[in-house]
Design goal:
seven-stranded mixed beta sheet, 9 strands, globular
Length: about 180
């Protein structure tokens, strides 16, 4: 059982109480927008959100605890320099629920869809100061491919992280089997 503090109150939950759902339509959009707007440093317009969820709804997942949206991942996939790749655009888990495996599960679900769709790799950017995100992606096998100076509007540098799917050993080591 995990314990977490939620708005001054402790919330206890079993991992089995977290419900993961695929993007289900316009009613999910305000939930995603609220989480991202509150937790990430970059501002996004409604058009950015719609770009992702309308074109790649199968790559957007939400995590709920007792009917409350506590996490989301928003991704896309497409051709980039002769490689079909997935891209993790946004990942958020609200603070009281972090460290409980929710972000890991959201990312794994997205990566499985990317792999099933024929992607050869997945990429993303993370702030160099975001130690939690860098640790999460490191555990999943992502490598730091490049440092992007002053990448974010707040002036913070980013690391471009990359996970190659062609390395089946890497996929097995990090439990990305399609049977999971």
């Amino acid at each position: 059982m995990a314990e977490t503090e939620d708005e001054g109150k402790k919330v206890e939950f079993e991992s089995s109480e977290i419900e993961y759902v695929s993007y289900g339509g316009e009613h999910h959009l305000p939930l995603i927008m609220r989480l991202v707007d509150e937790e990430l440093s970059e501002p996004y317009s409604i058009f950015t959100y719609r770009y992702f969820v309308y074109l790649w709804p199968q790559l957007c997942f939400l995590a709920f605890h007792r009917d409350r949206c506590v996490g989301t991942v928003v991704c896309k996939m497409g051709e980039h320099r002769n490689t079909f790749r997935g891209y993790i655009a946004m990942l958020v888990v609200i603070k009281p629920y972090r460290g409980k495996g929710i972000a890991t599960e959201l990312v794994i679900r997205a990566i499985k869809v990317m792999m099933e769709s024929g992607c050869e790799e997945a990429t993303l950017e993370a702030e160099v100061t975001n130690k939690g995100a860098l640790a999460l992606y490191g555990r999943l096998g992502f490598i730091r491919a490049k440092r992007l100076f002053r990448y974010y509007l707040n002036g913070v540098d980013a690391f471009r992280l990359k996970l190659l799917f062609l390395q089946s050993v890497n996929m097995e080591r990090h439990n990305f089997q399609l049977t999971r």
